[in-house]
Write a structure and sequence with these properties.
The complex is a heterodimer.
Chain A (H helix, E strand, L loop, with lengths): L2 H10 L2 H35 L5 E5 L3 H8 L10 E2 H8 L4 E13 L2 E6 L2 H5 L4 E4 L7 E4 L1 H7 L6 E6 L7 E13 L9 E5 H9 L11 E4 L4 E4 H6 L1 E2 L1 E6 L3 H12 L3 E4 L1 H55 L3 H38 L13 H25 L2 H7 L1
Parallel strand pairs in A: 4-9, 6-8
Antiparallel strand pairs in A: 1-13, 1-14, 2-12, 3-4, 3-7, 3-13, 5-8, 6-9, 7-8, 10-11
Helix pairs in contact in A: 1-11, 2-10, 2-11, 10-11, 10-12, 10-13, 11-12
Chain B lengths: L3 E9 L5 E4 L2 E3 L4 E5 L6 H8 L7 E6 L2 E2 L5 H11 E4 L11 H11 L6 H10 L15 H12 L6 E5 L7 H18 L2 E6 L2 H4 L4 E4 L6
Parallel strand pairs in B: 4-9, 4-10, 7-8, 8-9
Antiparallel strand pairs in B: 1-2, 1-3, 1-5, 5-6
Helix pairs in contact in B: 3-5, 5-6
Classes of the chains: A alpha+beta, B alpha/beta.
Chain lengths: ~400, ~220
């Protein structure tokens, strides 16, 4: 028996109003925690996935869409671009490195990316098993593709046209898994990487003609050689660009956009545009969450005040037995703090659990239950402060109870 | 040394209204009544004697404690160790069980939980059957017995009753008085009861009669 136990029993003795305060606070905290975590994880996700890319060159259309499809592999590509159009950018003095992407095919919902070996280096992706693709129809798969589809090196699969699971099979053009990447926590975990030329082969539905050696054009940047015919006829989806100098950011976008069919999109710029769109939504939701937390503070206050009216005599009795003013004060403070404490903790647990489930569902990996976003500490302190604030007036009222008068009225 | 000694005791509520009390002495371990109609200051005198309120003038001494000289915090301590009070209404802590109400009194009195003592009181006052029941689900008579048990939980040296029988029928009235006397004896406490209940009058020899006072 002690004052905490009494506070705890007093909370249980008014279950409905305690439940209301607790629910309100849990819900409010959950909303704010969710927003904090989402925007933090989202920014982190965006930053890490676009780390190696300064500019993306794609077909004319929405720059945001180019970024979403070529960096995050979520939206559909804007269209294709001719290799001949982008050739100038493979040897440009502002550019350190370019990586071509050919999108549009998939296998059971996992996107197949026609590219070059360097794509892996862009994301620091290391091979876990096997080797990089070296010939057409060889594939290197991300760790998640491997684990979820149960694919091993040496396994074969055929791609589907389109990016969803309902696409037509490309039939007899079976890919062979030659390598599996280590897990990176990036989008690449969910991709199937193949040589760019494999994509053309699958789509041409005709056997690739033997390239005439004398007409081959070397593209050192890609570490490969293409025939003049290929450069003339074939297309890719986009080109990932890494600048050699900051001047690239100034010069290149204009240069690209002047080429009739091309559009330059900056991941950093598009990401910050996306953030600012989301920021407004976040602000409103955050405001809502904070209001709910404030209401829960008021509900704790009212609930304590109401119960105090009924318990005036009880408090006088406690004092008459020998309880000091301070003990009575701390008892009431504890009541407020127990409710807020519980509300905050369940709110945090709920918020983190939802993020965990969301990440598992959407990205297929764990988000780290115990990793906190900046601002969560502040939220915790603010909630406890609200709890103290809500219970301090009732507690002081209890502190001031005139025992003799109260008992005489009884 | 006497258990209670009051001298020229006076309590002012404001400039116009104040209560004066006659000088009075009560021997240790005896029983005494404070009689008088309502408004005569019976309850106030009990509150003064139990240190719930401090006098404006005069002296008040309970078992050697000079209450008129003590601070609020010292009075809290005095109540913990020396005083037990039974009120007209039991006023138990509603969120707790019978047993927990008794344990709470021990806790507030800064006493170790003494299961043997609690058990003795429970048996004495015939509360064994309801000790784990929430106090909102026991009868009025049972509640008054729990209130008596609570008042002697810390073995007080003075046991006060403020109209403890006013809301009881004859049978229960007699029972409560008998129990109060019995439990006071058990603790070796002086028993002081303030009442206007005529039924109680004949069982007490020592009496202080307060006259109605003008405000």
């Amino acid at each position: 028996m002690n004052i905490f136990y009494l506070s705890y029993k007093n909370i249980l003795s008014r279950p409905l109003s305690s439940l209301l305060s607790w629910l309100l606070l849990s819900f409010g905290v959950c909303v704010v925690v969710l927003l904090l975590l989402l925007s933090d994880r989202f920014k982190d996700e965006v930053t890490r996935n676009s780390a190696g890319v300064d500019l993306v060159i794609g077909a004319k259309g929405s720059p945001l869409q180019i970024i979403l499809s070529s960096i995050f592999h979520i939206d559909f590509p804007t269209g294709n671009i001719d290799i001949s159009d982008i050739m100038p950018f493979t040897k440009n003095r502002y550019i350190e490195r370019t990586t071509p992407l050919s999108l549009g095919d998939s296998y059971n919902g996992y996107r197949i990316v026609g590219t070059i070996q360097n794509y892996g280096a862009l994301y620091d992706a290391q091979l876990d098993l096997g080797s990089w693709f070296d010939a057409p129809l060889e594939a290197v798969i991300g760790s998640q593709v491997a684990s979820e589809m149960g694919l091993k090196t040496g396994d074969r699969f055929s791609s589907q046209h389109g990016l969803d699971e309902e696409g037509d099979d490309h039939g007899d053009h079976g890919f062979e898994v030659v390598g599996i990447l280590k897990s990176t926590g990036l989008v690449i975990d969910r991709l199937i990487l193949v040589d760019m030329q494999s994509i053309w082969m699958v789509h041409d539905h005709e056997h690739e003609e033997e390239a005439e050696t004398d007409s081959l054009v070397a593209i050192p940047d890609w570490g490969s050689k293409l025939s003049a015919k290929q450069i003339e006829e074939h297309q890719i989806t986009s080109l990932l660009v890494k600048f050699r100098s900051p001047m690239g950011a100034v010069m290149l976008p204009n240069q690209v956009n002047q080429t009739s069919n091309l559009q330059a999109a900056s991941p950093a710029f598009e990401a910050s545009r996306l953030f600012s769109i989301l920021e407004n939504v976040t602000k409103v939701m955050n405001f809502l969450g904070l209001i709910i937390i404030a209401i829960s503070g008021v509900s704790v206050f009212i609930s304590l005040l109401n119960s105090l009216k009924d318990r005036k005599y009880e408090i006088a009795i406690l004092r008459s037995i020998g309880a000091s003013r301070r003990l009575v004060l701390s008892g009431i403070l504890f009541e407020g703090l127990i409710i807020t404490g519980f509300g905050v903790i369940t709110g945090f647990l709920l918020g983190h659990s939802i993020i965990l489930i969301l990440f598992k569902q959407l990205l297929g990996r764990s988000a780290g239950f115990m990793s906190f976003a900046p601002g969560e500490g502040l939220l915790f302190i603010a909630c406890i402060a609200i709890g103290i604030f809500a219970s301090v007036i009732p507690a002081v009222m209890a502190y001031r109870t005139d025992i003799s008068k109260t008992l005489a009225q009884g | 040394m006497s258990a209670i000694r009051i001298k020229s005791l006076q309590l002012s509520f404001n400039a116009q209204s104040r209560l004066n009390f006659p000088d009075w002495t009560v021997d240790k371990q005896s029983e005494a009544l404070i009689l008088g109609p309502s408004g005569s200051g019976k309850t106030t005198l009990l509150h003064l004697l139990s240190g719930l309120v401090s006098p404006s003038n005069g002296e008040i001494e309970v078992n050697g404690y000079k209450l008129h000289e003590m601070s609020g915090r010292q009075l809290d301590k005095f109540r913990k160790s020396q005083v037990g009070i039974v009120f007209q209404q039991p006023h138990l802590i509603k969120s707790l069980t019978v047993m927990e109400n008794l344990q709470l009194a021990r806790y507030l009195g800064d006493q170790q939980q003494d299961d043997k003592w609690i058990q003795e009181i429970i048996d004495h006052l015939n509360l064994a059957g309801i000790k784990d029941r929430n106090v909102s689900r026991i009868s009025q008579g049972q509640a008054q017995r729990v209130a008596i048990a609570r008042s002697i939980m810390n073995k007080p040296s003075v046991l006060f009753g403020d109209e403890p029988t006013a809301s009881l029928d004859d049978e229960n009235c007699e029972k409560v008085i008998r129990l109060l006397k019995q439990e006071a004896k058990l603790c070796g406490a002086t028993l002081i009861i303030a009442t206007h209940d005529q039924r109680v009058k004949r069982t007490f020899g020592h009496q202080l009669v307060l006259k109605p006072q003008q405000g």
